[in-house]
Amino acid sequence: PTRGQPVLEVRGLTRRFGGLVANKDIDLTLHAGEILAVIGPNGAGKSTLFNQLSCVDHPTSGEVKFLGQSVLGWQPRRMAAAGLSRTFQHVKLLPSMSVLDNVAIGAHLRGRAGLLRSALRLDRAEEARLLGEAQRQLERVGLGALSHVEAGSLALGQQRLVEIARALCADPSVLLLDEPAAGLRLQEKQALAELLRKLRAEGIAVLLVEHDMDFVMNLVDRVAVMVFGEKITEGLPAEVQSHPKVLEAYLGV
Ligand code: ADP
Ligand code: MG
Fold it and tell me: Which molecular function terms from Gene Ontology are attached (predicted)?
C-alpha cells in the first residue's frame, strides 16, 4: 500500500457479549504510514476492537476491510499471511527459550507451514531461513545482540520489543499493538516510541491501543477515543486532548 491509502476500514462494527455491548457501531480508518491510537478507560472495548481487526474474534454486525477486502470469516493466520500482525496486551513469550527462538517460532506460526508440521519436523533449510528472518527482525528493533539470551531474563521493555520483532516477521503492512507501553519505564517508552516512528517512516501503518496519554500524545498522528464501547471522538492529539467528552471520561470533569 502507498502512504495515505486506507489499509483497515471499520464500518458499523458492533460486538455484543450477551447483554453487554463491548463495541457499538464503530467506524474507523487506518491509513498506510500513520500511527493511530485508540485510547479509553479500562473496559471501553479497545482489546475487543483489536480482536475483531485481527480476526481473533468476529463482530456481531458491521464490517472490517483489510486492503479493500472484507475479512468476514477469516482466521488470524490468514490475516497475518495477508500482512496484518498484532501483539497482545499481556506478554506471551516462552521465558526459558532464547529470544531468537521466540521470534523464529512466531515467524513460523505466521508463515504458510502449519503448527503440526512444526511439531513434527522442520527441514534444515526452512529452519535456517526462519532463524535468519528472526535475527533480522531483532536487529530491526535494536535487540540483535541479545538473540541468544533467555527471553525471561529480559526487562519488560525489551520483552515488548521481542514481541514486536516477532510480529514484524513476514513483513506486515499493518501492526496492531495492544498497550505496548504499559508497565514500561520512561526510558523504555522512549525506545519504543523511537522504534514506532522508524516503522512509520518505513511505511507501516501502526494502530495502538493505549492507556498512557503522555506516551500517545507525543507519538501518534491521530487519536480515536472509546468510552463504554463507543468511539466518542477522533482527531489530532491536541484536538482530542481538550475535547470536553475526553476530559469527562478521563478526569470526570
Ligand atoms: P479494554 O481493552 O478497553 O479494557 P475490553 O475490550 O477488554 O476493554 O472489554 C470491553 C468489555 O467487554 C468489558 O466489559 C469486558 O468485560 C467485556 N468482554 C471482553 N471480552 C469478553 C468476552 N470474551 N466475553 C464477555 N465479555 C467480554
Ligand atoms: Mg484491553
Answer: ATP binding
Read off the pTM.
0.90
Ligand closest to the CA atom of residue 40 = 1
Q: Are 2 and 205 in contact (CB under 8 A)?
A: no
Domains observed in the chain: 1-83+175-253 (3.40.50.300), 91-171 (no CATH)
Task: Read off the DSSP letter of residue 15.
Answer: E
Residue 22: helix, strand or coil by DSSP?
strand
In the block, cell 482527531 appears at 235
Which residue has a Cα nearest atom 17 of ligand 1?
Answer: 22
130 alpha carbon – ligand 2 mean position (Å) = 31
Model pLDDT for residues 165-204, shown as the tens digit of each residue = 999 997 899 999 999 999 999 999 999 999 999 999 999 9
φ, ψ at 204 (rounded to 5°): -75, 140
Q: What residues does ligand 1 touch, defined as CB less than 6 Å away?
A: 17, 20, 22, 40, 42-48
Q: What is the pLDDT of residues 62-111, one digit of tens each?
A: 999 999 999 999 999 899 989 999 988 888 899 999 999 999 987 766 55
